[in-house]
Design brief:
Layout (H helix, E strand, L loop, with lengths): L16 E4 L1 E2 L18 E2 L2 H14 L5 E5 L8 H14 L5 E6 L1 H4 L4 H9 L2 E9 L3 H6 L6 H14 L3 E7 L7 H12 L6 E6 L7 H8 L7 H14 L6 E4 L8 E6 L3 H12 L10 E3 L8
Parallel strand pairs: 1-4, 4-5, 5-6, 6-7, 7-8, 8-9, 10-11
Antiparallel strand pairs: 2-3, 9-10
Length: 297
C-alpha cells in the first residue's frame, strides 16, 4: 500500500491487512472531524489495488482479514466494490472477512440485494459513525443524515446479514443536552441490531468548525459529570433483546464500561451510578468491566 497520510483504522483491525481503496473522505463536512480536512478525496485505480493485492499475496497468502483504508470506502458504486471484493478473493483466498468504515450516506444507493451480494463476496463487517440519534444535533454537526434515515439504512444491513458497530459520541450536544442525546440515540438503536455499540467521548479537534464554535462561545462543552450522566441515560433507555456489546474502550473515554446488553445492563448502570455518587468530576474516572474481554471494535 502506498499512502503518505495518517492511516485510521479501528483497534480491532490492528492485525488485519490494510488495503487502500480510497484516499480521504467523499463527504468531509462533519463539524467535529478533522481526520481528512487536508486530504483530497481520491479513488485508487483498480490497477493499483490489484498490484497491492499481488504484493500482499506474496507476503502473506494466508491473510484471513482485510480492512479497506479510507474515510468511507463504501461510497464506491456497487459494481466497483464488487470487483474489489472479487479481486481480494482471487489473491487472498483464505480471507474470511473484509471490513471498512462506512456512513449512512454510503448505504443509500445500495439495495438489500446488492448488499447481500457484497456480503457473499466477503464484506463481513462495517464500522458506522452514527454519532447521535438526535436530528437537531445531527443537523448542527452536519452529519448529512437523519435518525430515521439511519434506521432505514441499518435495517437494510440487518436484512443482508452484514454485522456492524454503531459508533456514537456522548457530549456531542454540548452542555445541557445529555438527556436529549442519550434518549434520542437509544430510540434509534432500539430499532436495529448492532453487533456492538461503541461510545466515544466528544473531543474538540483543531481546525474544525466545532473548535471555532467553542472559541466564540456558541458551543459550550458538557461537563465531565454531564457526560457520565449521559451514559447512564443511554443505558437506561436501551431496550435491546439480542446480544449487543457495549463499550467505552475507545481512547477518548475517561471511564471504562464494557458489557453485553441486555444481560449486563443493570450491572453496568450500577457502576455508572456509583461513579456519579461522589458528585465530584475529578472522581469520574473508573472502570466498570462486566465482560470477560473488552470489546475493541
Amino acid at each position: 500500500m502506498r499512502y503518505d497520510q495518517i492511516i485510521y483504522y479501528p483497534p480491532f483491525e490492528r492485525h488485519s491487512l490494510l488495503l487502500q481503496v480510497t484516499c480521504g473522505c467523499s463527504y468531509n463536512q462533519c463539524a467535529f472531524c478533522n481526520m481528512y480536512k487536508t486530504v483530497d478525496f481520491e479513488v485508487i485505480p483498480l490497477k493499483q489495488i490489484i498490484a497491492d493485492l499481488k504484493d500482499a499475496s506474496g507476503y502473506n497468502p494466508y491473510t484471513e482479514r482485510v480492512f479497506l483504508v479510507g474515510g468511507e470506502p463504501l461510497c464506491l458504486p456497487f459494481e466497483q466494490m464488487k470487483e474489489i471484493l472479487t479481486q481480494i478473493k482471487k489473491y487472498l483466498p483464505y480471507c474470511a472477512c473484509v471490513s471498512m468504515y462506512a456512513s449512512i450516506k454510503n448505504l443509500r444507493d445500495k439495495t438489500v440485494e446488492q448488499l447481500k451480494e457484497l456480503h457473499r463476496l466477503g464484506l463481513g463487517f462495517l464500522y458506522i459513525g452514527l454519532e447521535s440519534g438526535s436530528d437537531r444535533i445531527l443537523k448542527q454537526m452536519k452529519k448529512g443524515h437523519t435518525a430515521a434515515e439511519a434506521v432505514e439504512q441499518l435495517k437494510k444491513l440487518n436484512e443482508a446479514q452484514i454485522p456492524f458497530n454503531s459508533i456514537l459520541i456522548y457530549g456531542l450536544g454540548g452542555a445541557g443536552c445529555a438527556k436529549e442525546n442519550a434518549v434520542e440515540s437509544a430510540k434509534m438503536l432500539n430499532q436495529v441490531r448492532s453487533a456492538n455499540i461503541i461510545m466515544m467521548n466528544l473531543t474538540v479537534f483543531p481546525d474544525t468548525e466545532l473548535e471555532k464554535w467553542c472559541k466564540d462561545g456558541s458551543f459550550v462543552q458538557a461537563s465531565g459529570r454531564e457526560r457520565i450522566e449521559e451514559l447512564a441515560y443511554l443505558l437506561e433507555a436501551l431496550e435491546l433483546t439480542t446480544p449487543t456489546g457495549f463499550s467505552t474502550s475507545h481512547v477518548t473515554n475517561p471511564v471504562m464500561i464494557t458489557g453485553t446488553l441486555p444481560y449486563d445492563k443493570e450491572k453496568m448502570l450500577e457502576g455508572v451510578y456509583k461513579m456519579l455518587g461522589s458528585g465530584k468530576e475529578s472522581d469520574l474516572h473508573g472502570i466498570v468491566s462486566i465482560s470477560d474481554a473488552a470489546i475493541e471494535r
